[in-house]
Amino acid sequence: MNTLVNNIEEAKIKVLSIFDDVYPETMKEYDGAPSMLYYKGDIERLKGKKVAIVGSRLATTYGLQIAYKFAYELASNGVTIVSGMAKGIDSAAHLGALAAGGTTIAVLGTGIDICYPKENLGLMKKIEEHGIVFSEYESPNYSAEGTEEFQGCLHDEKYLAAFEYSALDMV
């Protein structure tokens, strides 16, 4: 246990319990809500309106442009963008929010200290500075599919913007 605590402290990873006041209320409603969340960034940026933007890793140029612009406009108006930091639409959404000077939250499907894809390391560092990087996994060796449900739990308004192959659907 001391090794885990030391690793977390050395990596400047913060831990959020389901019993903490700032743990997202919408996430507590989810049956599979993790009891612990690991994060880097400013937890105060979790407050306010949030919209999740997720989509294809193999998006078209047009799809990437629309995701970026949509995130930029929302972030310019004080809405926090939530996505998964994957290639494609997720990255475009994070970049749009950051370009607008807004806040963005990345939900990882890996351990909190693993950047996947590796080419997003610079993006991950920017998100840590101007938002929050979340994972339910502290282990550097853990990765999982299925963070989409986790992302959905972080947005407030029950709106999900999904971009796939140049399509925009509001649910």
Produce the secondary structure layout:
Blueprint: H1 2-10, E1 14-17, H2 25-28, E2 36-41, E3 50-55, H3 61-76, E4 80-83, H4 89-99, E5 104-107, H5 121-130, E6 131-135, H6 147-154, E7 160-164, E8 167-170
Parallel strand pairs: 3-4, 3-7, 4-5, 5-6
Antiparallel strand pairs: 1-2, 2-6, 7-8
Helix pairs in contact: 3-4, 4-5
Protein architecture, described:
The protein is an alpha/beta fold. Helix content is 34%, strand content 22%. The protein is built from six helices and eight strands. An eight-stranded mixed β-sheet has the order 1-2-6-5-4-3-7-8. Helix 3 runs parallel beside helix 4 and helix 4 crosses helix 5. The longest helix is centred in the middle third of the chain and has 16 residues. It is globular and about 40 Å long. It starts with a helix and ends with a strand. The C terminus is likely disordered.
